[in-house]
Alpha/beta hydrolase (Novosphingobium anseongense), 288 residues
Amino acid sequence: MPRATINGLGIEYEVHGPEGAQAVILTPGGRFHMDTPGIREFALKLAEGGRRAVIYDRPNCGKSDACLLGASESEMQAEALSGLIRHLDLGPTAIIGGSGGSRVSMLAAARDPEICSHLALWWISGEPIGLMQLATYYAGEAGSLASVGGMEAVMNATSWAENFAMSPTAKEFIRSQDPRQFIEVMQRWAAAYVPSDITPVPGMKPVDFARLTMPTLVYRSHTSDLSHTRTTSEWVHRLIPQSEFRDPPWRDDEWNYQAAETASGKGHSLFISWQKLAPEILELTAKR
């Protein structure tokens, strides 16, 4: 599997589709990796449609290295995303993502808009319950473990489990941290998720949304989804100039249904419907 060094970090990636074609780079949510069911399948459908489709493992995900820098984890990952696009010399790229991947995609596009030709976003996390869930999942669990059992206890953190299992380098990097300094990072990263009255997305200010002038699709979330609320998707749509707001091509309760299926032990299915977006992403990226 190809590996790039971006900002000193080892980033695993795959490229599918014809060289020189319009590039599309996909970022999933959580700390899930590109081997998670639905991710590679989505990329292959885009490649079949004539696009240069890129999937990758963000820092702290999959086989890529771990990193504790940045005002927030998402902002650090957005820098890695921008760096990977430039490293691969993809040219202006369609940046797409869901859940945590939508946040990383927005941050990357707003901070480095010349690398982004198109933008597509779905399952955008927001509002108090959704954001506090993220603070607990991404930072609270690991910070609490470090406070009672040091870094050896962090080796049991569920949110880091896949990264540790797939990347011995990442595991040893986190194990080697000073617990006090690690907790400080987790506190800082958790604080990034504090709900705001001026923005729906952590790390994004109104001026950042104003920079997103590229053709953009924002997919509506359902009212049953408290992790990615409908209000958040509507707010993002209002803030992005000339964005198009669409219903997603899956069941209304997709997140809740697939989360329950995954939790039941039937296999990871959170992202298996994402490939249904392929025809609309192909349509979007045909626009110049």
